[in-house]
Amino acid sequence: MAIDRPDPASALTLPEPSVVPQSTAAAGARLSRRERYKELARALMRSKTFVVGAAILLFWIVDAIVWRWVVPHQPDATDVIATLKGPSTAHWFGTDALGRDVFSRVLAGAQSVLTIAPLATALGIAGGVIVGLVTGYYRGIVDNVIMRVVDGMLAFPLIIIAVLVLAVAGSSTANVVFVIAIVFTPLVARTVRSAVLVEREREYVAAAKLRGESGPYIMGAEILPNITGPIAVEATVRLGYAIFTSATLSFLGLGLRPPSPDWGLAVADGRAYLQIASWIVLFPALALATLVVAVNLVADGLKQVVEE
Amino acid sequence: MATAPVQQEARPVDIEHLTISYRRRGKSLRVINDVSLHIRPGEAYGLVGESGCGKTTVAMALMRYLAPNAVVEGGRIMFGGEDVLTLSQDTLRRWRGEKMAMVYQDPGSALNPSIRVGDQIAEVYRYHRGMAKGAGLEAARAMLDKVRITDPERVLRRYPHELSGGQQQRVVIAMALATDPDLLVLDEPTTGLDATVEAEVLDLVEQLRDEFNASILFISHNLGIVARMCERVGVLYAGRLIEEGPARELFQDPRHPYTLALLRCVPRLGMRKDVRRLDPIPGSLPPLGVEVEGCIYADRCPIARERCRVEAPPLSPVNDRHRAACHFHEEVPSISPSPETAPVVVAGNGTGDGVLLHVDDLVKTYRSGGGDVTAVAGVSFEVNRGEVFGLVGESGSGKTSLAKTLVGLVDATEGKIQLDGLEVSSKEQRRNRELRRNVQMVFQNPDTALNPRHTIQRILGRSLKLLAGLRGGEKQQARMLELAASVRLEPRYLEVRPAALSGGLKQRVSIARAFAGTPRLVLCDEPVSALDVSVQAAILNLLVDLQLSERVSYVFISHDLAVVRYLADRIGVMYLGWLVDVGPAEAVFNPPHHPYTEALVSAIPTLDLDAPRPRIKLEGTLPSPANPPSGCRFHTRCPRFLGDICKEQEPPWQRDGDGHVYRCHIPPDQLRGAQLADRPSALPD
What we know:
The complex is a heterodimer of chains A (308) and B (685).
Chain A: H1 8-13, H2 22-46, H3 48-70, H4 102-138, H5 140-155, H6 158-169, H7 173-199, H8 203-210, H9 215-223, H10 228-251, H11 263-270, H12 279-307
Helix pairs in contact in A: 3-4, 3-12, 4-5, 4-7, 4-9, 4-10, 4-12, 5-7, 6-7, 7-10, 8-9, 10-11, 10-12, 11-12
Chain B: E1 13-24, E2 27-39, E3 44-48, H1 55-63, E4 70-79, E5 82-83, H2 89-95, E6 100-103, H3 107-110, H4 117-129, H5 133-146, H6 152-156, H7 165-177, E7 183-187, H8 195-211, E8 215-220, H9 223-229, E9 232-237, E10 240-246, H10 247-252, H11 257-265, H12 306-310, E11 316-317, E12 323-324, E13 355-366, E14 373-384, E15 388-392, H13 399-407, E16 414-419, E17 422-423, H14 433-438, E18 439-442, H15 446-449, H16 456-468, H17 473-486, H18 503-514, E19 521-525, H19 533-550, E20 553-557, H20 561-567, E21 570-575, E22 578-584, H21 585-589, H22 595-602, H23 644-648, E23 653-655, E24 661-663, H24 668-678
Parallel strand pairs in B: 3-8, 3-9, 6-7, 7-8, 15-20, 15-21, 18-19, 19-20
Antiparallel strand pairs in B: 1-2, 1-4, 4-5, 9-10, 10-12, 11-12, 13-14, 13-16, 16-17, 21-22, 22-24, 23-24
């Protein structure tokens, strides 16, 4: 009954259809994964959108790490003599109402945004992937119930939910991270679910069921590796929103507390002086804009490459 | 009718030394290599070849629809006295649809889903003829009449998705012919269609050829269709035209080893596995864009010798109408079939071994918003040990639903499935390992059947672990090598991912996976229909070998009757969820058989040009399984419709000796008489 002995005679009668030239096949065996990444990297490098976005993003990331060694003034150092001074050689971006150096504060402000946003995005993606996989794979009642809850959440503007939760739970960096992650989860879940709905109908999933694989295995080991493209795109798009949301929350006074150099906070602080000292608002706002645009450029570039 | 004066040349289409490359990642891959051909006025020229040989590229170049990364490196395409490749965009836009038109493979995506059919056809008249809206619609109606669509008034107001595949393709053809073009390009016009619909569309094209005087470029991978439709045929291989000649001569006396091999590797009607094995073509297509010094086919050629490897053979004349690119074309007729084709000894095979699978009144109903759809409506049959049970029927007949239910991917709504006398619960989660090992499946699409992110080793290893209980280590490794050897898969392929394999190799992996435990029943759902003919033969031979060495039973689903007849011991024919005809393979193919089977058999395109057979046409389209006809489900389309009895009463099973049964009101003797009378020349066997 078993295919115990492959009959050498019969094995010889059928000429081996070798498709891939031997060298390619052998090399492909070990290099295929690395080559795939190389291929991806090359495609990304060809995309101008991606390269420009990545360059700006990289600048801010480096800045978020090294700002304390490059700032000309301590961001928190007040100077009662030099308040509300315009841009000059001493203070490139001018000073704020407390005489703090805006340039130094802009450089320092990147740190909080680039901590909160990626953490929140990562958590939101993780939650969304799990919910999306489960609802998309099992369908049925689970799917219906969870997706109706998701619909309900999506009916509220994102920021309202965030404000509501932070007002109740109190504002701290950790809470801001969690709140953004929570409002992102249903959005990510939608994207993941639709990708899963396509994959689950593929025959390799049927084959896995036929050999008796468990649901979690099929979701995690069979389907998940095949939907990394849309997840990566979703992650970069979400990162842009996360930056924006965290700045908005700070602006509304629900995020970070003074004297943090956070950009959203700086915009809120400088609002009162907009007519006489526009630089206090202008430069943090510009910084925020470049960062969000950079992330969106990266997202667009990635999306193009993935969709090819 | 055409506004431009018709060019009265001997060659309305003249392709000269066409060479096309695709640029991909900075590299240039030559896909069309010095192809020259011409089409005479009113002539149908067939272009055949396997996938990836450049057929569609030639067609696209002719219409100048080439992809942006395609580069024409040389040659001319003369049409209507001008070189299509140098036409201005303006002229090109006028010419397309006016002087040249194309019919694509998938009619569903060739039509705009959001515009009514009438408006789409009328647009052709409005743009090219400057007609007003009303006049355009009137012309569209007349055109639909010409393509013999039933009730054109109604079809005009329909959206494309409301039409069946056959009707859609008629509409596309109507649009293409609307301006009476000089050149009509048909790119695999029937490939996605069911056999009976395919026959209808081909009939239509044949009839229209008399009414319209267009030259036709007919592209197909199906030799039978090309043999039927075309006067002259060109064979493409790896972007080169390797043989060209009158259709009949080319197929009866091929002078290129590749053409000969192509003709030999398809199961002809009447060929059986116990008489002769199929003759696959050794090796595989050369990779895209490969540059070879000698003959491109030398690696796979049985008569290749030193000269073939160093000197590329030109397309040289065999006679004044027939050309072949082979140094030794006069030797081709004497190439003998490979030893591979020696008949298989079918020992102890057949019905003596008892019943393995027993299906009793199986019903599968899908719930859907617009009412329940009964895909399988009470099907009963048995499969014996070591037997191949062929299941045929058009799409929508419930074949795949039946297979999924048998294998446990979906639940049966009603009915019993017994394997070896044991009741098989239909819920896959409740199936234990023993059962899962016993019943496995080979899927249709090799590209999606294997997880693209897993290596072959992992795919097979997982199956060995779960089905054979081999958890890693040397034992699993040894067994995996055995398994790979049993499907003729070289061990070096175990480390790669599916993307590095060809369709044929992927299907071997898929088969190996099904055989990882030692199955007793393997469901093969169209396992070769996504493969090229040369690969198909090797896979079919492999399936036969495995069936004999492993003593498994197959339920073999296919829409290709020649393949089913070749492989199956018994055949079941499905129509709209019913099994209408069951019996030994040969009995099903010969009268008396169910009128539906009769229509299917008559629709097979054949290479045997000397035995033209009258075709039985089926009226109308497949009714919706959500709302099946009363009485006999086939009565709405039956060419042997009796009257009210068919509408009101479900037909009984009629017996015709040796286990052949069919479901019809007409008794065997009567039916045999009628069917033989309609088909004086019985099937060429």
